[in-house]
Amino acid sequence: MAIRRKLSDGAKAKLASELTEETLEDAIQSASIIEERSIGLVQFIERYKKLTALPPMKIESFQAGDLFEKMEQLFKEELRAKGISLKRTPQCNIELEGDRQMLEQVLINLIKNALDAMGSHEDPEIELSCYKDSNNHICLAVGDNGEGIPKDKLEQVFVPFFTTREEGSGIGLSLCRQIIRLHDGQIRMDSSPRKGTNVIIRFPA
Fold first, then answer.
1. What percent of the chain shows pLDDT beyond 70?
2. How does residue 120 score in pLDDT terms, banded at 50, 70 and 90?
3. Domain spanning 60-203 has what CATH number?
């Protein structure tokens, strides 16, 4: 629109004699900026596609509790070192149909985020839970009582490359959503500053 305003008078193009050298230079600079941003956008999309390329899914049946048990073992030392307690639904026998490795990666990313969110909380705690909601959807949840996320940033957490941490890549949650969508599921985050965060994954009934 800016370039059009410089080169036209309303709906009618200006004559060459009416265009000043400054106007033409401004129009050329504006066009260069648009070209540069277009190239940047294409590169952004290609970079994202490479970073989030996923292998074909290997579907199998397994219990949700198996995932939780593996996470407990995987993070045992780090949890102990940081004084963070981990609670999980005991004997979670809900049967899942999906790619075990992909869903493990989702939980790993969510638990890492929870660990980073603890800050200096006096009684840090992470909770893994599984249940069926009122519509019989299978739900997995990762909750923490950490710092929480402000409402204005909560809507952006699944956007590629958006991060609330200086050292974060902004890929983790976006990748989680991509994996859950491959399983025809949904993922959402509820959070409040100083009250903690709860991420809920819901699979179709």
1. 71
2. confident
3. 3.30.565.10
